[in-house]
Amino acid sequence: GLAVLVCVSAVALCQTPLFNLLGFEFAFAIGIPLSLFAGFCGIGRVQSSAETSWRAWWHCLLRVLTLSVIPLLLISLNALRVQNCNYLEGLAHFLIITLTGAAVASAWGVVVADLLPRYSNWCFFGLWCLSIARCFFQFWFHPQIDLFNPFLGYFPGALYDEVLLIDERLLASRAEDLAWAMFGLTLTAWRKSDWLRSRRWVTAILVTTLAGL
Which of 80, 82, 154, 210 is 20 to 30 A away from residue 49, measured at CA? Predict the structure, then answer.
């Protein structure tokens, strides 16, 4: 269902002014359904296989990347009728905002599925919503600040220039998001390992990390 939503969203965005070319706006908007798909894909992979956390994440990531080709192809073909100012810069936004967010979401989907297998779908969705709610809270009290989100990447506040450059702050934020996701996967792998006698401290660190998102 979410895979269909990603494709339908891409078609709708191709018809919507400002979002109908490959740039920040399209990358941000398509990242919303794609990050949800990635998270639930990670959960489904853990529940349907006995793979290690890293292997489950890798297979899920390949599936997400395959799906992401569809919106990228659609918006690229749309450039035949809507002129793109800088296609390569738009492609960079798609990579850094959309695909990185999907990679992070799929990793945390794997982690949540390991920690709470019964309620993993609701827990991941709640985590995703809470991260958005925190951004709205910051936006409400500081309307002109830049907002960074582990799943959706970046929102430049209430006022922003027409041209959004990929600067060191965005790159640092994305690197931090990936690092925390990889840290979560590492702890999950340790938690599953047979040689680790006590797993309580690993679980405690994982829960603390998830709460910090």
Answer: 210
Q: How many CB atoms lie within 10 A of CB 210?
A: 19
Per residue in 67-122, pLDDT tens?
999 999 999 999 888 888 788 888 999 999 999 999 999 999 999 998 888 888 99
DSSP string, 15-69: TSTTTSSSSHHHHHHHHHHHHHHHHHHHHHHHHH----HHHHHHHHHHHHHHHHH
Instruction: In whole angstroms, give the CA distance from residue 37 to residue 124.
Output: 11
Alpha-carbon span 111 to 42, nearest angstrom:
8
Residues 33 and 10: their CA atoms lie apart, in Å, by 10
Q: Residue 24 corresponds to which tokens in the numbers above?
A: 């920040």
Torsion, Cα of 19, 21, 24, 25 (10° steps): 0
Instruction: Grade residue 11 by pLDDT with cuts at 50, 70 and 90.
Output: very high
> What is d(CA 53, CA 43) in angstroms, rounded to the nearest whole number?
11
106 membership: H or E segment, kind and range: helix 100-115
Separation between Cα atoms, residue 210 and residue 131, nearest integer Å: 10
Q: Mention every residue, 6+ apart, whose C-beta is less than 8 A from residue 25.
A: 18, 19
Q: Identify the bridge partners of residue 153 per DSSP, sorted by sequence position.
A: 149
